[in-house]
Specification:
331 residues; alpha+beta; Nuclear Transport Factor 2, Chain: A; 3 domains; six-stranded mixed β-sheet; five-stranded antiparallel β-sheet; 8 helices; 15 strands; disordered N terminus
């Protein structure tokens, strides 16, 4: 079975989780004997892949974890003719704590194609399992609402609460303090709403990359698996200006032209978006290090020495107005 976090509905529940972590009974993956069926195993939804090869299912579970029972939600894959089990086991690609219907209201599944499953998950879900692929099926994730600052705050808080030497702070309190700049990690420290939105844009581009090919050479067909409507929301209503240092080429594309390229999955703008996501997905600072500079109402974001992005203030948000590719390519 899977490792999932015990609930934090109250301080007592948090203390219980500490005790469970200390006892080491949360990690119930790889049981040597067949687990018992869960007390509750409700099928929330199920979708079949376009080629009818796979079934993707969402379950709400209440299962034994040592001396306690743990409520969880799981996304599970199995061959379309495979038999469902009475417990989360083989085929679990995603697992999160369940705090009742509101906590899972945004959780849903969607097949992008026969080999790519997208899972929409709550932004501040307590996630225990999150696979990027399973038996040839790529699993991608989007968050609703999409707030990378809150996700980083939650990651830091969960890490802190697993340290038994630290005092207990409930997640609502920690979230409030963190989003007011008191507990941010170094990458997001001293950030504001504008820089958070810029990071959200890059994380969104990154989410469209096939994780199996992230370390390989760039190929546009391996990326760009995003909802085009969501990508367009990051762009300025007047369109985007593109620059490529190779050939010193500059061009401007209005939103309808960009949307057309996203639909066709081809074109110069589409390729640059995919390449930017590919570069940012590399886990090395020479590729994905971010630098932020302000010029009045303009935010400029440098992605290492590869790209420079310009965001313009539009009321209470920022929108992308320019992408510059700065890496000179050899012959």
């Amino acid at each position: 079975m899977i490792a999932i976090f015990a609930p934090f509905l109250a301080a007592a529940a948090a203390m219980l989780r500490r005790a469970i972590l200390a006892a080491g009974i949360l990690a119930i993956a790889g049981c040597s004997s067949k687990p018992e069926d869960c007390e509750v195993r409700d099928l929330l939804s199920e979708v079949t892949s376009p080629d009818s090869g796979w079934s993707a299912s969402l379950y709400s579970n209440v299962c034994a974890a040592g001396l306690v029972t743990v409520p969880s939600d799981t996304a599970e894959l199995r061959p379309v003719h495979g038999k469902a089990t009475g417990y989360p086991g083989e085929g679990v690609v995603f697992g999160m704590d369940d705090f009742g219907p509101p906590s899972r209201s945004t959780l849903r599944l969607h097949w992008l194609n026969a080999n790519t499953l997208r899972i929409v998950t709550p932004n501040d879900a307590f996630i225990g399992t999150q696979l990027s692929s399973y038996r040839g099926v790529v699993v991608t994730y989007t968050y609703e609402p999409d707030d990378p600052v809150v996700r980083q705050c939650l990651k830091d808080w969960l890490s802190a609460t697993s340290n038994l030497n630290k005092s207990l702070t409930t997640w609502p309190d920690a979230k409030q303090r963190c989003t007011h700049g008191l507990l941010l990690s170094p990458r997001l420290q001293a950030t504001d709403n504008d820089t958070a939105q810029a990071i959200a844009f890059l994380e969104f581009l990154k989410s469209g990359q096939d994780p199996r090919t992230a370390r390989q050479g760039f190929d546009p067909k391996h990326g760009g698996h995003w909802p085009k409507e969501r990508l367009l929301q990051f762009l300025d209503s007047g369109g985007v200006t593109f620059f490529d240092v190779n050939g010193d080429t500059t061009w401007h594309e209005p939103l309808p032209a960009i949307e057309s390229e996203l639909t066709r999955r081809s074109g110069r703008a589409f390729t640059m978006f995919v390449h930017l996501g590919h570069i940012y997905s590399q886990p090395y600072p020479q590729y994905s290090r971010l630098t932020f500079t302000r010029f009045g109402e303009t935010l400029v974001v440098s992605v290492a020495d590869w790209y420079r992005l310009t965001f313009a203030s539009r009321g209470r948000t920022v929108r992308l107005t320019k992408i510059e590719y700065l890496q000179e390519e050899g012959e």
